[in-house]
Design a protein that fits this description.
The protein is α/β, with parallel strands linked by helices. The strands form five sheets. An eight-stranded mixed sheet has the order 12-19-18-14-15-16-17-13. An eight-stranded parallel beta barrel has the order 21-22-23-24-25-26-27-28, surrounded by five helices. α1 (about 25-35) packs antiparallel against α2 (about 45-55) and α11 packs antiparallel against α12 (about 345-360).
């Protein structure tokens, strides 16, 4: 047993080999009985160990569990000890977790820490750990858990490859970075057995994102991917398809980036040679161009984020609960951010935050944080320490693309940290001057970049980072001039210093003279005229060659996003997804907060239409702080309108805020639509609530519409149209329900094609039903932003399309280059097709 005088001794009588407990509780009690027999614990401590399982997960991973009692029950520990129960066939610990070594811990102090550290090292040596699961010699376990001189890092020969394997040479132009690695992990996690990726003498768990990134795979590296388990061959085939299937996209992305780099206009050159004016050298800070463009303004230096995380020990129960809740809340926040980014900027940019969310599933980081809490540290300190250790390993990678992922890990880690301890939430990014400024920072996280107020930040310059960082990618997408890697000289600048930032050359010119500023303004005006000529067509209406007009809206969620949407040719907001007001915070917004947001949206649109979708949660959009009941199948459960009708405390404040905003808006600007409508009764009930609230506020009438996302609504559109003012089809959900495919399913998502003939027929049914009562139909789903999809929709009779702002110019061009008769004929041919592949084969005819 472990004693205070011999903390690392482990006699054979505390080891039981070949156990076969009936379940987790039986395993814990059997291990606890060994400790009781050895005089280590009071019998009541076994119940304490069972209680802990109801509030915390003691499964460390890799087949190892460490059950132990509640902190408040340490008085039941007579002396320090551990007991090992070997379960060769495994025992289910929690869903998806099987324990084969149950290491029961009893400790009054920190005497067990050495064992926990040893277990951590063992989990890096899978071959040795696997051998311990079936060894018939107790001495093997004694040595493994007490011999500190044993090598913690396995060699390639020790690791070997699993039963089924294939070799592959990395052909991604930038190596294995976060976004493709996240796809690997998603595919690997469906396996019941292990997945291993080996490069030379290093190997990684294929189900762990950070471990994969730490391999530092570059183009030309040869790897072996191997699997085991009953479905090993099927898993390997799926992995091969995922890995090789991403090659074309990675090469295309790299080629597009190269083309963009060559196509960017020449950077600005100061009017005098070598950057001098009248013999005076203009001070300049040089870095790397990250996002082209020239801007002039005062510098605002964001204080360096030297965060000191206090170590505030807490009871293990409390600390574990806080970490668990913080992880869940952050996952929801990142899902919302990815969804929002996909609609504003595009799926590639959204992939940044999807990959960040995958980092939260890294078992090594979470396990280390839990171990540090077991050692007696506070949850915030433990989490931050675990993140920093892992980020430091990533940052040391010689591949700059992979080293840049350290910033992503720290970014997502900070989000979790501020959920654990709200006092650590930094506010400097929000403390910007009222006038537009060039934001200077040591570094900036991707999430902070995506959330920048474009009305107050006109340029970005960072001391660290690289042109391939996610922050740089987002800056380019936002059209924000940016430079990176400017060094320490940047953060030493005085606030208010006038500067000229050239994001193409990566230079920040300081204290420019009047002549410099005049020259820069002249260059900016030349570029503005050139850009205006290029964008002239996007401001024109989407009117076909024979005079048919389709209204084009943008999917926008915040007032500060309106300007960009209008600049891309948007004629209004066709979808404001109000769930983001709830998802990106820890509590529900008040009626007043919602009112201010809706009013700001209407003011920014200045009379253009704003279609606001009432709160749409449930399904894949959960809001943890609302504490709604868990559902086994949320996509077929209480979501959308069903939820609103059951929770008037959510519905009525939102409607009051909307009708208050309508009172001060220009007539016809605001439209309200309700999500996930299935029955006429839902419409009648919601309209009655709207009428009551409107009368109470003496507000103007507002057009009320519904989302057509359920086949039942499309089929009965002629009946529903009598009771609403318009329809908006959500093709993503309509496709999901029509084809019975979860659009997030890792294997089936690609088959959830909104151009399937059955989905197109439901759209046509909706249009026909609406036309019987003079109602118009819009589409705010994914295919609205695809030029070919938009052409089909127009041919089917859809009158309004709403999409990600960046998709608007292409859709408008496609419709302007078409004629309505041709589009109708094309749509009819698509309706007659037998598969989505046949429909897509018609794309060349959409002219």
């Amino acid at each position: 047993m472990l004693t205070d005088t011999h903390p690392l001794s482990l006699p054979p009588d505390l080891i039981r080999l070949g156990a076969a407990p009936a379940g987790k509780e039986a395993a814990i009690r059997e291990a606890a009985q060994l400790l009781i027999a050895a005089g280590c614990i009071d019998p009541a401590y076994a119940d304490s160990m069972i209680r802990r399982e109801t509030v915390a997960n003691t499964f460390l991973g890799h087949g190892v569990a460490i059950p132990h009692g509640m902190v408040d029950d340490r008085n039941l520990v007579r002396r320090n000890g551990i007991a090992i129960l070997q379960v060769p066939d495994g025992v289910v610990w929690n869903e998806g977790q099987t324990a084969r070594l149950v290491v029961a811990i009893a400790a009054q102090s920190d005497a067990h820490i050495a064992i926990l550290r040893r277990l951590t090292r063992l989990m890096q040596d899978e071959a040795r750990l696997t051998a311990l699961f079936t060894t018939g010699n107790p001495a093997d376990l004694v040595v493994a858990l007490t011999d500190e001189t044993a090598s913690p890092v396995p060699s390639a020969a020790d690791v070997g490859d699993l039963a089924e394997n294939f070799d592959w040479v990395v052909d991604y132009p930038t190596g294995l970075h976060a976004r493709p690695a996240a796809a690997w992990v998603e595919s690997a996690r469906a396996a019941s057995g292990r997945v291993r990726v080996r490069h030379g003498e290093e190997s990684a768990d294929g189900k762990t994102l950070v471990a994969l990134l730490q391999l530092g795979l570059r183009p030309g590296d040869r790897i072996t991917v191997s699997t085991d388990g009953p479905d090993a061959r099927a898993v390997l085939n799926r992995l091969r398809a995922t890995i090789t299937g991403l090659s074309a996209r990675e090469k295309a992305d790299a080629a597009a980036a190269a083309r963009k780099a060559k196509a960017v206009v020449q950077g600005w050159t100061p009017p005098a040679a070598a950057g001098t004016i009248g013999g005076r050298e203009m001070p300049v800070v040089s870095g790397i161009g990250a996002s082209p463009g020239l801007t002039i303004g005062p510098v605002h230096v964001m204080p360096k984020a030297d965060l000191t995380v206090p170590d505030r020990p807490a009871p293990l129960l409390e600390g574990g609960n806080r970490l668990h809740e913080a992880l869940n809340l952050t996952r929801q926040q990142l899902k919302a951010l990815a969804d929002d980014t996909a609609r504003r900027l595009g799926p590639a940019e959204a992939g940044i935050f999807a990959a960040q969310a995958e980092l939260l599933n890294d078992t090594d980081v979470i396990t280390l944080a839990c171990q540090l809490m077991v050692e007696g540290h506070g949850p915030g300190w433990s989490w931050n320490e675990a993140v920093e250790r892992s980020a430091a390993r990533l940052a040391a990678n010689p591949n700059p693309v992979l080293a840049g992922r350290a910033a992503d890990l720290r970014d997502v880690g900070r989000r979790v940290l501020t959920r654990i301890d709200p006092e650590l939430r930094g506010g400097s990014i929000r403390d910007l001057p009222d006038t537009p400024c060039i934001l200077v920072a040591d570094d900036l996280s991707p999430s902070d970049t995506a959330a920048l107020d474009m009305g107050r930040v006109i340029g970005l310059a960072t001391a660290q980072g690289g042109p391939t960082s996610h922050t740089a990618i987002l800056a380019r997408t936002l059209g924000l001039p940016a430079m990176v890697a400017g060094g320490a000289a940047l953060t030493g600048l005085a606030n208010g210093t006038t500067a000229i930032l050239d994001g193409q050359s990566g230079r920040l010119y300081l204290d420019p003279s009047d002549a410099d500023i005049a020259a820069a303004h002249g260059w900016i005006e030349e570029q503005r005229v050139r850009k205006a000529q290029q964008e002239e067509r996007r401001s024109l209406p989407a009117r076909t060659r024979d005079g048919h007009t389709v209204e084009i809206g943008a999917n926008v969620n915040r007032p500060d996003q309106v300007v960009m949407a209008l600049s891309q040719g948007g004629e209004g907001v066709g979808l404001m997804r109000t769930e983001f007001l709830f998802l990106e915070r820890g509590d529900a917004p008040s009626e007043e907060e919602q009112y201010q947001t809706y009013r700001a949206m209407l003011e920014a649109l200045d009379g253009r239409p704003l279609i606001v979708r009432a709160l749409d949660i449930g399904g894949d959009k959960q809001v943890p702080h609302l504490q709604l009941p868990h559902e086994e199948n949320p996509f077929l459960g209480v979501r959308g309108a069903r939820l609103l009708l059951r929770h008037p405390e959510l519905l009525e404040p939102q409607l009051r805020a909307l009708y208050r905003a309508a009172k001060g808006a220009k007539p016809g600007g605001l439209l309200i639509m309700f999500p996930m409508i299935t029955t006429l009764r839902e419409i009648e009930t919601l309209r009655a609530v709207c009428d009551r609230i409107r009368a109470e506020l003496d507000a103007p009438a507002v057009p009320l519409g519904i989302m057509v996302e359920v086949p039942a609504a499309a089929i009965q559109a002629d009946v529903l149209a009598r009771h609403v003012d318009f329809f908006s089809i959500g093709t993503n959900d309509l496709t999901q329900y029509a084809l019975a495919i979860d659009r997030q399913h890792p294997e089936l998502a690609a088959e959830a094609d909104s151009l399937h003939p059955s989905v197109l027929r439901l759209i046509r049914l909706t249009v026909e039903g609406a036309e019987k009562h003079g109602r118009w139909v819009g589409v705010c789903g994914g295919i609205a932003g695809d030029p070919f999809g938009a052409a089909l929709l127009a041919g089917l009779g859809v009158r309004e399309l709403s999409m990600t702002p960046r998709d608007i110019p292409g859709v408008k061009d496609k419709l302007r280059d078409s004629d309505l008769a041709g589009l109708r004929a094309l749509a009819q041919r698509a309706l007659d097709c037998e598969s989505s592949d046949e429909v897509r084969a018609l794309e060349g005819e959409a002219s």
